[in-house]
Amino acid sequence: LPKPRLPRFDLLSKIIIDALVIAIVAFAVSLSLAKIFAKKHKYRIDANQELIALGSANVFASLFSCYPSSASLSRSSVQEKTGGRTQVAGLVSSAFMLVFLLFLGPLLYHLPKISPDIGSEK
């Protein structure tokens, strides 16, 4: 895993518009998904709390050069169908992914890779 470091602020002027668009779309997707599950399970959500949580997660992730995070309809649906009701279910699945990436991932290193020029017409 990469060591935490501050992002490159010299690129900010080049990516600020794209970053704002991604942030707005990610928040809209997350909030709409939260509203779907809130209606289904009869609980209330606070849009401000969702924004703070998503923003905090993305600021922390930026220290590790991660992609922006957002909600995932497929992953959330699978988690809900398997009985996951709290954030603990997400932590458990994330822990499994981390173990796989750190310990079992290197075993997949020697699998063949598709060459980018295969299938392209010359």
From TrEMBL:
The keyword S-adenosyl-L-methionine does not apply. It is a multi-pass membrane protein. It comes from the Eukaryota. Residues 1-114 form the SLC26A/SulP transporter domain. One of its GO terms (cellular component) is membrane. It is found in: Membrane. The chain crosses the membrane at residues 15-38, 90-109. It holds the Pfam family Sulfate_transp. Keywords: Membrane, Transmembrane, Transmembrane helix. One of its GO terms (biological process) is transmembrane transport. This is SLC26A/SulP transporter domain-containing protein. It comes from Medioppia subpectinata.
